[in-house]
Every structure is written in C-alpha cells, then in structure tokens.
Amino acid sequence: MSRIYMDYAATTPVHPEVVEAILPYFSEHFGNPSALHAIGQEAREAVETARDSLARLIGAEMDEIVFTSGGTEADNNALVGTVRAAGDRPCHIITTAIEHHAVLETCEDLEKQGTRVTVLPVDGQGLVDPDDVRRALTPATVLISVMHANNEIGTIQPLAEIAAIAREAGVLFHTDAVQTVGRLPVNVNDLGVDLLSLSGHKLYGPKGIGALYIRKGTKVAPLLHGGGQEQHRRAGTENVPGIMGLGVAAEIAIRDMAADAETQTALRDRFIRGILDSIDHTTLNGHPVKRLPNNVNIGVAYVEGEAILLNLDQLGICASSGSACSSGSLEASHVMLATGCPPELARGSLRFTIGKWTTGEEVDTVLQVLPDIVAKLRAMSPINNPDRR
Ligand code: PLP
User: Fold this and answer.
1) Ligand 1 centre and the CA of 369: distance in Å?
2) What is the pLDDT averaged over residues 336-361?
3) CB 201 within 8 A of CB 11
4) Considering 12, 97, 301, 386, which has the largest number of Cβ atoms within 10 A of its Cβ?
C-alpha cells in the first residue's frame, strides 16, 4: 500500500541532500571537534560551517547559535537558564496557554521552585493579545515566552508587537519557533527576540538536533555542565552528523522556502475548502490567514478525531488529531481547549500538515475518502448527532 504522509508538523523526512551530506560524518570524518589533529579539525570545520548556515537562515551572528539536542532542550534552556541567570531575585515569567509542553511543563517545574508564572489566554483563533502581555508585566518579570506559530492549529503570533513591549519593559523575550524556522522567513532582528528555539527534524534535518539562538549579551545559564563546548553554554561532545544535517537543511530552506511556502499555501487552501464544502458540521480551527502555510486543522463535530485517524491509517493516510505527544490519549488538546472549544468538539479535531513532497493528487485522495469515513463514523457515533435524531 502506498502511504500518504500528512504529518509534517510532527516530523519531516530527512532531505536526501541532507542524508548524502552527513553520511561521511559517521565514517571518515568521525573526529571529535575538540581534538587538535586533522581528523578533529575536519569535524570542527563541519560544525562551524553548519553554524554559519543556520545563523544566515535566521539572521543571527554565528556566536549567537548554541546547538542543542532539539527544540525541547532549547525551550528548557531558554526558560530555566534565564531564571538561573537572574540569581536569587524573585522571578516571574509570562507565557501562553497554547505553548508546547516543552515550555508549559518547564514553567510548571520552575513554579514548584518558586518562580511565578502567568499563563495568558488566547482568543478563539489562537491569537495572544499583546495588551494582555503588557498588563501581565510585574517588576519581577524576567522573561516573556510566546511561540511563533502553534504546532496544532498553525496560528502565527504577533511577535514583533510583543517584542516591542518586552523591550520597553527591559524584559527578555523568547520564542519557540520550532514550527516556523525553515517554513516561514524568520529573522531574529525583525522579530525582536532575545532567545529563539528551533529543531532540525521539522525542517528536513535529522531528529535529536536543534539550536537555541541567544542574542549577544543575553545572560542565560547553561543546563549542562562538563566540557567547554559551545563557548561553555552547552557541554558535551557535539553531535557532528546532526549539526551538519541541520546546517545543510538550513541551506536548503534558504534556497527553497519561498517556493515551498507558495505551493503549500495553495494546496492548504484547496484542502481546507474541499473539506468544509464536502462535510457538514466542520469548521476550520485556528486563524484563516495568520496561519502556517502547511497546516490544515479541522473540527469535525459528532465524531472522535482518533476514530477518523484510525480509519485514515487503514488506507495508508498519516495525519494527527493533536500534537504527536498527546495523541494516543483521548484527552482533548490543551490548545483546542484554550481557544474555547468545548471538549467534545476538541476531541473531533483533525490535523493534516503538508510538506515539500505533498502532491495535489494526495490531497484529492484524502478529499475523496474523508466524507465517507466521517459519514460511517457518525452513523454509529454515540456522540449526540443531530442527523441521527
Ligand atoms: N516546540 C514545538 C512547537 C514543537 O512542535 C515541538 C515538537 O513537536 C517541540 C517544541 C519539541 O521539539 P523536539 O522534538 O526537537 O524536542
């Protein structure tokens, strides 16, 4: 059975050019970048070339990039590192209800250790109100953390407005840009952020590699202690093939991003229209325009999203009903609940995320099979369905 992959927000396949470029870094260029000999220095050169590529992708300086094990570590480091760097003073963090668990759970942990956390609400389309950010500021606020675009519903936040508020208040601003780097133009200066998290496996690079951008002069304590790698900001022998892969993925993004975004936006809009037109009681979740080019998130009333997913999976179609981390449990997504969606409707949300290799034929195939799957499930659904009354 040929498969249709529509879960690019969960992870992307590694680009063949990335695979080709990194393979020698497992074999002939296997050196430790800290070693002074030729084999070590080849590895060092690869790490620094990748740092340059990634810095150019996000408009940063090379020494503002710290490689991490992924987006989760970058988020943890941004939050915990800022609080630790603040020393003994009382700390307050402002964040939002729709952040990834890598931010929310880190905040919960910090709270247990005495940091105060304000979790801001979002509107029905998942947007944060910058005025809410302003109102939440206190003299103890050390950090505002607002994600660039949401991984479930694709809503893109007004980061530049929030950055201006942070700057005026003298507070650091972090964004989790895991879903946008490589998909949308991301420039740390245009966005006005001090800290930014990104992850390799969302932009056709390998898993287990990411980076934290730290604006020059920003005080962030390290999470890991040991060797002096990454200018003493992240100890541990560098994941050279991973870093190399992230660098090549960044070069590919610089080259292909604009064209990819245009193609995907057109496919996305056709996909959304097709579902809303062919299936009753469906709604678009998230913002209609301020939206990731690859995100189609639909609320399907009177049916469980998980049941639709299983039926799609039997046909070889891979989608998601929330973030990858929360699927497998039938708990309604915290993001959907934060948008004010009732739990029974939130459980009927379906996320299709398209990518570089999604075709119009694949979209048509899903549009063909989805109405029958929904009709079949609704016919046997225990959930109160007006069409069955
Ligand atoms: N932040 C967001 C918005 C994400 O979508 C993800 C991954 O799903 C992460 C953070 C975690 O990144 P990683 O898988 O590289 O740890």
Assistant:
1) 30
2) 94
3) yes
4) 12
Summarize pLDDT for 102-113 with one digit per residue, the tens.
999 999 999 999
Residue 186 is encoded by which pair of tokens? Answer: 């991301």
Q: From residue 146, how far is each of 119, 204, 367 by CA, in Å?
A: 10, 24, 34
Is any atom of ligand 1 closer than 6 Å to the C-beta of 176? Answer: yes
Is 194 close to ligand 1, i.e. is its CB under 6 Å away?
A: no
Q: Which of 147, 160, 146 is nearest to 93 (CA)?
A: 146
Ligand 1 centre from 79 Cα, in Å? Answer: 15
pLDDT digits (tens, 9 = 90+) for 127-185: 999 999 999 999 999 999 999 999 999 999 999 999 999 999 999 999 999 999 999 99
Q: Is the dihedral of CA 251, 252, 255, 260 positive or negative?
A: negative
Residue 298 burial (CB < 10 Å; 0-12/13-18/19+)? buried
Q: Is 145 in the pocket of ligand 1 (CB under 6 A)?
A: no
Residue 179 · residue 149 · CB < 8 Å: yes
Read off the pLDDT band of 32 (50, 70, 90).
very high
